[in-house]
Write a structure and sequence with these properties.
The structure holds 2 protein chains of 2 kinds. Chain A is an alpha+beta fold. Chain A contains 17 helices and 32 strands. The longest helix of chain A has 24 residues, at about 515-535. Chain B is α+β, with helices and mostly antiparallel strands. The chains are: A alpha+beta, B alpha+beta.
């Protein structure tokens, strides 16, 4: 189905199942431990051996020699895979560094060997006996030091590296009120709870992997390319995924090494990355340095807006596109953005939840807060004054929906923003300095084609198959809701099967595009199935009504079970998009409000209250959508207060590569969180009229926390995370 | 030349059933459950006591099963997530997690649920926590007590408020 004109009324609008706060249909499996994750598939193939990954102990250089003799002689060892014996390997189109290093080493903990043994304990013990001698070479690990050597990257996912409208330099110089500040964000780790894991089994030339991956078709294609085998010989399955956040978008070392290990050992092999390998072996959100310049008139109208960002990556990698939102979020006649990319020899930088906007909003929304203060304006009001209803770079291009002002106003009212003291350091609760902060939330809505297959059987049961994944987002449930709504069935009559490369190719999970696009693909397949049912019954499909398990036309009514008959009916289709995302800018909006308390003696910050008001299209399931939002808000709190991969700039690696020293928020860190969804449908986004929600929730949160800390203490920190050492010496005197 | 692994027999009462295993003594309780008994509901998130995904209940107390060797549990009673309930017959805590959406990806969930069940028993027994104002008084079922006591179980999807709602409902606390 081609979607190239805005949606009109369709069966989804009935909202009998869609839009209802239905509990996840996979809930009973997940809460009883019976949902099968990658490493747990004892059921799929017998005789699985264990692989243990050895990571490089240097950041850059070469393997001078590897001595495997001791490891090979260790009890239980079946095979050892290294680049020397693995045969010729390609590199996936989406990988920057190779997934099996050697002789060249591109980053610390790059995999250099896989030891395969009868048991996990034997593989682990033998892995410690692999002796690798390295020749170390100098590398670049310090973004600030590499900043001046940064070059102009290629045009990327978010657009060109340089943009310009009007005359920024002149307008900024002429502006009566100016801000020119630099902000830094650190490297961050996805830290999903399930480590990357794969079971690989060969059947002759055919390879099957049970893995944990967000994008099944990408994984299958890149696995085939890496191994130099044909794509149709590879099957990838990933029905349950223990979190991804972008860290499982791409083929990673566990998959390739499990496949190579299984080939070498002549039997199935299972591999999980150990937790301490994950930060340096896989991808991370790259650190940024961001310079923001804002020029405004005395009454608070922005006339010049400039945003530059520097980040680093391995050779061949890409930038963190931290300037993207600045091209769209606020009006200003004169504007510029620029991205520069330095070569760094740290692990591969890549997408993490809301790549670009998450980092960019951390900086931009502090800058807006600072500017509001310079102007003597309330930061909510300053944002409202600079709203735009069109793409500021192409004014003929409107937003499909843009209700940022309503988000700000609704949020402010619900949060009690009017109780905020404009002057910092004025609210006290015992020895706690209390402050409130606000930030806009913004993330684009991306359209990607997505397909599904639907079967109706003689019992009236509908089964949906698509290679879509559920990484905790609720895909199983919203897909079931979509099929139930379309076919006029209760949700119990819908089964959903996901994450198998033999199923029709979906949009996959990433970039908050999964919910809207995957359900739109299921919608398209359901339309086809409805036509098949109607045709079989001799009904006019446009007039047939699907409700209560029946198909009705006039006074004729037939059950779906009967219509399907013993042989059943099958339909397959997908959604493809025309140019509605070119004619219209499609984005999601919100406003984050945060109250913090900062201990006046210790500088310890605690988040006391949080609220997000969001406008992001039709909410397909308010229960799971709210969970996406609060989860993202929490990750934003981590970004504000604790999360930082600390770089050892001498030897070139992330030092705090585990969950004790890379501090993600825990229960005690997170208070009650409110989420308000504005009542919005967006007929320009898809037949579902939905948009992304999962990443909007993180965009702006950290800045709202930073702004609240400033409001509490009068201390402006522009270097994340805002740890107490950055506050304590500057806290107000409490005498 | 490295030695052959040292093997040892161990017998445990797992979810009410006597299970006898012959194990490499280096096998953690977590791997004994997951790899030998195929009770994969107990998750491996970090394998060194930092995440809580492997939480099981041993002799009534919650522990990180990755931080203990299986052979140390001769004769012990071990309750895993599979021992609490089944998809068709959920334990009240499991049902509350479904109702309140106390999970997203589901990977930390069995650990959260085992931890929550044993944690409520700790409160009942009067065990104080870091946030208990009076160490001698009966701890109260406040949100802060629950949050503090559950902080060894990380949820990166961050269903935290929903988890607290689920536990509160089971504990009979008004939210």
């Amino acid at each position: 189905m081609r979607f190239d004109t805005p949606a009109t009324t369709n069966p989804i609008d009935q909202l009998r199942v869609i839009g209802q706060p239905i509990s996840r249909i996979d809930g009973p499996l997940k809460t009883t431990g019976t949902a099968p994750y990658a490493y747990e598939r004892h059921d799929v193939v017998p005789n699985q051996a264990y692989g243990y990954v050895v990571g490089a102990a240097i950041a850059k250089g070469r393997i001078a020699s590897i001595d495997l003799a001791q490891a090979q002689a260790a009890p239980g060892v079946l095979a050892i895979v290294t680049a020397e014996n693995a045969g010729k390997l390609g590199k996936g189109g989406r990988n920057t560094a190779t997934l099996l290093g050697g002789p060249a080493i591109e980053h610390y903990h790059q995999a250099v060997a896989l030891v395969v043994a009868e048991t996990f304990e034997q593989a682990r013990a033998a892995a410690s006996l692999v002796r690798v001698d390295y020749t170390r070479t100098e590398g670049a690990f310090d973004l600030a030091a590499a900043r001046n050597s940064a070059g102009t990257p290629k045009s990327g996912f978010g657009g060109p590296p340089d943009t310009s409208v009007g005359d920024f330099a002149k307008a900024f110089a002429a502006a009566p009120v100016q801000l020119d500040e630099t902000y830094t964000t650190p490297d961050q780790s996805h830290a999903m709870m399930e480590p990357h894991a794969t079971i690989a089994a060969w059947d002759g030339e055919r390879l099957t992997v049970w893995t944990s991956n967000q994008m099944i078709a990408w994984a299958a294609g890149d696995l085939a390319k890496t191994l130099g085998i044909s794509r149709d010989k590879v099957r990838v399955m990933s029905p349950f995924i223990g979190g991804g956040f972008g860290g499982k978008l791409f083929l990673r070392a566990d998959v390739v090494l499990a496949a190579l290990g299984a080939r070498a050992a002549g039997r199935p092999v299972k591999v999980a990355l150990t937790r301490p390998l994950m930060a340096n072996n896989t991808t991370h959100r790259p650190a940024t340095i961001q310079r923001i310049r804002i020029g405004a008139t005395g009454d608070g109208k922005i006339t010049a807006l400039g945003h530059e960002s520097w980040s680093g990556d391995l050779p061949g990698g890409g930038p963190e596109e931290a300037v993207n939102q600045t091209r769209l979020l606020y009006a200003a006649a004169n504007r510029m953005t620029a991205m520069r990319l330095a070569v760094l020899d740290l692990a591969e930088g890549n997408a993490m939840r809301a790549p670009g906007e998450a980092s960019g909003m951390m900086a931009l929304e502090i800058a807006i807060d600072e500017m509001a203060e310079k102007l003597g304006l309330d930061p909510v009001e300053f944002r409202i004054r600079n709203d735009t209803q069109v793409d500021p770079e192409q004014p003929e291009r409107p937003f499909s929906q843009r209700r940022l002002i309503e988000c700000l106003r609704t949020g402010a009212e619900r949060f009690g923003w009017n109780k905020r003291q404009a002057q910092p350091g004025r609210m006290l609760d015992g020895n706690i300095l209390v402050g409130m902060g606000v930030a806009a939330a913004f993330r684009n809505n991306l359209l990607t084609k997505s397909a599904a297959r639907i079967r109706l059987d003689g019992s009236g049961m509908v089964t949906v198959e698509t290679d879509m994944t559920d990484i905790g987002t609720g895909s199983y449930t919203i897909i079931a809701q979509t099929a139930a709504e379309m076919m006029g069935l209760p949700i119990e009559k819908v089964a959903v099967r996901l994450g198998d490369s033999t199923f029709p190719v979906s949009c996959g999970s990433g970039g908050q595009w999964g919910g809207n696009n995957s359900t739109a693909g299921v919608y398209a397949a359901c339309v086809k199935l409805r036509e098949a049912v109607a045709q079989k019954l001799g009904f006019n499909s446009a007039e047939a009504v699907f409700a209560d398990g029946q198909v009705r036309l006039g006074n004729r009514s037939v059950s779906l079970a009967e219509a399907a008959g013993a042989e059943g009916l099958l339909a397959e289709d997908g959604i493809e998009y025309g140019d509605l995302d070119k004619k219209y800018q499609q984005s999601t909006f919100g406003a984050h409000f945060v109250e913090v308390g900062v201990d006046a003696a210790t500088g310890e910050t605690r988040v006391r209250r949080m609220l997000a008001a969001c406008a992001c299209g039709r909410i397909l399931n308010p229960k799971t959508a709210r969970s996406q939002l609060i989860g993202a808000m929490t990750m934003g709190v981590g970004a504000a207060l604790t999360e930082e991969l600390v770089v050892d700039k001498r030897t070139g690696f992330f030092v705090n590569h585990d969950l004790a020293s890379y501090e993600v928020p825990v229960h005690a860190d997170i208070p009650h969180q409110d989420v308000v969804f504005l009542d919005e449908v967006d007929p320009i986004s898809s037949p579902m009229k939905a948009k992304g929600v999962a990443e909007l929730g993180i965009c702006g949160v950290a800045a709202a926390v930073a702004n609240a800390i400033y409001n509490a203490t009068g201390v402006r920190v522009r270097d994340y995370p805002i740890t107490l050492d950055k506050l304590i010496e500057r806290l107000p005197n409490m005498q | 030349m490295p030695d052959q692994p040292t093997m040892s027999d161990v017998s445990m009462l797992v979810n009410g059933e006597t299970r006898k295993l012959r194990l490499d003594v280096r096998t953690t309780l977590l791997d004994a459950l997951r790899e030998h008994l195929h009770l994969t509901g107990t998750k491996k998130g970090c394998d060194h006591g930092q995440c809580g995904a492997c939480t099981v209940i041993v002799a009534g107390r919650r522990i990180n099963s990755c931080l203990t060797l299986a052979v140390m549990h001769e004769g012990d009673s071990v309750t895993t997530i599979e021992g609490l309930g089944t998809p068709e017959n959920l334990h009240p805590m499991q049902a509350a997690f479904v109702k309140h959406d106390g999970y997203q990806c589901g990977y930390c969930t069995p650990g959260q649920i085992c931890s929550a069940v044993a944690m409520l028993d700790e409160i009942k027994a009067g065990t104080p926590s870091h946030v208990s104002a009076d160490l001698m008084a009966q701890p109260q079922l406040t949100a802060m007590e629950l949050r503090e006591r559950m902080s060894g179980n990380i949820c990166r999807c961050a269903a935290y408020p929903n988890i607290i709602d689920a536990i509160s409902e089971v504990a009979g606390r008004k939210t």
